[in-house]
Structure formats: structure tokens, C-alpha cells
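Deviations from the work plan: none for this task. Representative record:
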Amino acid sequence: MPDADSDATRRSGPTIYDVAAACGVAPSTVSRTFSRPGRVNAETAERIRQVAAEMGYRANPLARALPTGRTSLLAVIVADVTNPFFFDILRGAETAADEAGYTLLVADVQESVDAERRALDRAIPMVEGVVLATSRMSDSSIRVAAKQRPTVVLNRSMTDVSSVAPDNARGMRRAVEHLAALGHTSLTYLAGPEASWADGVRWQALREAAYELDLKARRLGPFPPTQAGGIAAAQAFARSPGTCAIAYNDLIAIGAMRGMTRLGARIPQDVSIVGFDNIFGADFCTPALTTVAAPLRQLGALAVETLIRELRSGARRSGSPARVRSALLPTRLLERDSTALAPRRRRAWAASPGGK
Amino acid sequence: MPDADSDATRRSGPTIYDVAAACGVAPSTVSRTFSRPGRVNAETAERIRQVAAEMGYRANPLARALPTGRTSLLAVIVADVTNPFFFDILRGAETAADEAGYTLLVADVQESVDAERRALDRAIPMVEGVVLATSRMSDSSIRVAAKQRPTVVLNRSMTDVSSVAPDNARGMRRAVEHLAALGHTSLTYLAGPEASWADGVRWQALREAAYELDLKARRLGPFPPTQAGGIAAAQAFARSPGTCAIAYNDLIAIGAMRGMTRLGARIPQDVSIVGFDNIFGADFCTPALTTVAAPLRQLGALAVETLIRELRSGARRSGSPARVRSALLPTRLLERDSTALAPRRRRAWAASPGGK
DNA sequence: ATGAAAGCGCTAACAG
DNA sequence: CTGTTAGCGCTTTCAT
């Protein structure tokens, strides 16, 4: 009967004290064995590992975290988990985190700045770093967070906080060129949330490209970045139809296609639509959506890799902002079936083209 | 100059000791003020709150968690974050967790049992409870986990662990009836992963319903629960075509529709397809998918609510399994455009109907 | 290379 | 109602 301890005593596994006792060494030696290999005699270490394994010892991450702050947790604040845009971003983030031994704490803030701030407040004390995926907060709020924990923003760009984003400008430019090549002479931008950094960049890039290519550009919106938003956009568009539209994102584009179809338009014969992001579903909606594809998975992975690099470079202390790293990942235009030659003459399709 | 402390001293905010000192009370009183309101004189409490607020005191969740185990963290292990099935489940889970003051730690295990076990091992010591969403692990592995932390399985059902799942059997029955009513006389089931509990239930329910309604039933697969899996399913189906198929899930159904279309079939004229889950995209694929809708958001919400209830009922101690709660949420058949009357005579559509 | 001891910040008996 | 006193399990100087 080697085990005199009642098994009802310990609520959760053996501790370094138990292992130490069993090995006849000091607890600190056991601690070192696991957290600072090399700082302990090879043989002793081996023996300790052995015994620890037999006893089923597992370090308590909470206990480790208390004195060191190393929780191995990363927060990922997502604007809307329900938005397919984030699926692959999360997957990429997960994979990268897992490889580095980190676990993700993900918070869905449902496009609400308030919820975002609350989630952040709650998560920050528990995590080592934060990735803000499509934050709706102000730059200054983000800076406040970044002051407390290493932070990287995703799908946004800032001068003083590390960031990872798709190259929206180039993508937009390609989209405009594509439409121009098809003979369209004026463009409509179906805008997303005003608080969205990407929206600003996309619209501005559209205007510039349109200007250079001598196309007319207008902006409708803002619309919520959802299918419902797209349907609303379709209605707005129908009030003064054009021959093509570029949507803030695929969700709006898909909703817009549905909405316009319902209003009698044929896509792409009457109106060409291009989306942004190439989310799940962009390939099997009807017609298949021409869209500016962002490297979603890479975006997520790079964001946490960047974060982890900052962590490792010891950007733990307050104030030391660490080196700011900014990445712009390449996008590409996926030409599918929602864009076509501009119609020679417009066909009236909206029920009441002049508005109510 | 009330603040004599150098502001470079504290790495992270004031502690209960600081607040206590500032108030002239004992640290434990400050502690009580926040963790056990009511156990402290109203006035004292008020004063303490006041001062704490002024000092910007924030309880350190790690420190609280160490002695109590109350981390306010819940693990959600999902088979595949990239699968739209989980979008609304996560949303529901998030919302419910947030309302109860919990934060989710989500791990994507990419349909891998190994990854699932690793994620669980890593998460368990940090969380108060676990929800296993579509676990691929064996019942016994799940029991092992459930012994360590209150656990609820989602989209699966067990006798000794709380569970939340859609009523697959009824849903399947409705689907079969629907097809029978359209004149189909034999059914093909496009199977999902063998390790999937839902797959077993669905196939069995299909067989029973088919038997009762005097239809023939066969099973093809297993296929990965993805669009690619559906395309593979289409090919298998084409080797010996039928007039209709029920897929394990919407992803397979959508993939199958695309695959069959590519092989020359018209959906639904030549073959009717029904899916399962009503995921994002099921309504805008072509044709819109007839599917058995599961209350995704509720599923997620109920899972964490159940978990939290167990937590509150003090199922913290090892061994005490707490009351097992099992819920079967109602599903409903969404009749859309992928199902139609059985063809009077079959049209040959597969390029090589006899196989290779 | 290893041991002793002092915390990390908070909670929880147990007294008063 | 409030203060005292131990820890929770691990890390980390500082000695030895």
C-alpha cells in the first residue's frame, strides 16, 4: 500500500509537492524540471519526469499564471461569429495558436461597440494578447487596449498598433478594372458599416480607380454587412438603377443579387455585381459571385503569429510598444458569373424605377 | 499628491491590499465587498466601492480562480469552426455565456479525434465546464472528461452525460414522408462520418420511416461532411442513380447538387435532394435546398445554459455526476426547391450510368 | 545543481 | 460585521 493518502483528499491531481516528496527533492526542483529544463541535473530531471508521469502529475496552469501572467490564452474578438467572413479567419488563428501552445478565447461581439468593450474588459486580464478582428472601436480605444496587452488588429490598419489586413485597395482596383473592361461606365458602391475601416478604404479605392479610368462612381448606404443589408441595398439601387455594383462584402452582394432578382433584374445581364472576401457560399450562390478574394485563413494565422512574436520578444511590460508590424496580404479577383458585359441598352426592371 | 506610489511599480493595477489600506480596513473586507455583497456593512461597502472605483481597482480573475477554481471560463470544443453548422451554435453559446458572466474558450479540432483530445486536455484545467459540440470521441472518452468537469454534449445523446440535440428522428421522418408524398419509392442516404452520432441516428430513422412507408432505402458513403464530400457522393450516386437522396447534412447536400448538376442531372426534376441543418447558404444555393432545420442558435444557448445550471447546482466535486439533463429540440422541414415530384420515367443523366 | 522561503492576489475559515 | 491567518500551486530570487 504505497499510497497512504486517502484518494478523497485531493480534488485535483498531484502537485509539485507530491512529486517532490515522492522523489526526495525540493518542490522548486520539480518546478524547474518542467519550466526551466537544463537548469537541473539531467539524471534528477529524468527521475522526476518519470515519477511525475507515473503519478499523473499535470501542472496547474492557473497556479503558473498567477505569478507569471503566462496564461497561454489569446483573446480573439470577432465582430460577428455568424458572418462567414470569420470562419476561415478563426480556423487560421486556431491553427497558429495551437502550434504555439496557445488557446483561443473567442468573443463574439455582434457588431456592437459596447459589447466589444465589455468583452475586451473581461478578457484582457486573463489573456496574454489580443487580436481584434474587424473592430468597430475607435483608434484611441484600441490604443488603450494595446497599452494593456500586446494587440494586433485584423482587417484594419493603424500606425501604432500591429495589423494584418488584405490589400483592399489593390483588390478594389482590380474589380473596377474588370468592370471597366466589360464596358461599364459608372459604378455604384454598396457601402458597409460606417465604423468599418475596410469600408472606408474600399470606397476610397473605388473612387480613385474610377477617377483614373474615367468612370462615374456613387455610393449607396451604409447597409448592415448582412444579406438583409444587401436586400435593402437592392431596393435603394432599384430606385435609380445602374449597370453594376460593387458591394462592401459578399454578404451584401449576395443579398443584393437576391433582392434585385426579386425586383425583376437579371444578374448579370441587367446588372453586374461584385463582392468582397470570397466567403463560404460565394461560389454556390446564383449566379456564382465575382468577388475579391481575401486570404482569410492566412489573415487569421498571421494575426496570431504576429501577436505571438510580440509576446516572445518580451513586449510584456507596460509602455514598451514593441515593434509595430503591419502586413497587407495580397487579394485576387475571382471572376465568376455575376459580372458580364454592360447591357447595350438598359432594360427597365425595377417595378417602380422612379421611387415610390 | 495623494499618490505616493511610483506609477512604475505596479505592473497591473491596485490590489485589494491597496484598496484596504486606502480605506483603513482589512483586505478580506474588500474581498467580501465584491465577492460576497451583503456580508459587509452597507456603509463600509459603499465607501470601499467608492475608493476602489477611484483607484481603478479591478479584481484579478487569475488570483480569484486559483483558490476557488472559478475561472468564469467555459470550453466549447467544435468539430470544425469552418462548418456553417457551428456558426449559429457558437452565437447562441456566446450569448448565453455572456449573460451568465462566462467567457468562451473555443477550440476547433478539425474533425480530428486526436486534436479533440489534446484541446480538451489543454482546456480542462482552465475551465469550469465543457461543451462538446459534435464530438467524434468515444462515449467512454467523453465520460472521462465529464468526470473532471461538468460537461454537456451537443448534437449527440448519452445516458450519463447531459446532452442537447435536435430531434433528428422526427426530422428525418418528416423528410421521408415529404419524399414519399412526392411519389418517390426508393431513397438513398448520403452518409456522413461514421464516428458521428447524428449520422447513426439519421440513417436509422430513415430506415425505419422508409420501412413503414414501404419505400426502399439504401446508404452510400461515408462521405466527409463537406461540399467536397457531397461531390464525391454525387459521383457514387451517379453510378446507380435514384430519384432522390437525403444527405447527412447540408454541406453534403449542396456538394451533391453541384456534383450531380455537373454530371448532367437536373435538380429537382431528375433527382430530389434534401439536406439537414439549414445552415447558412441553404437558402441561396441553387436550387434552394429543402432541408430539415435545426434550431442552431437555441442548441448552442441551451447547451451552455444547461452547463451553467450544473455549475450552479454545485456539481463541482469529483464523482457527483449531478442530474443528467437531456434535451431534444424540435426540428422542422423547410420545403424549398430541391425536391419535386418523382420523375415519371427516369432520364439518363450520368455520363456513364453503369460505372466506369 | 539544489534547497529554503517569499510571494502572485484573492478567498475562506475562524475568531473576536 | 470585520480582522487574522492560512493557504491555492507554482515561480523565483537568494543562499548553500
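Residues 15-17, 27-28, 30-32, 35-36, 59-60, 62-68 of chain B lie near DNA strand C (CB under 10 Å from a C1').
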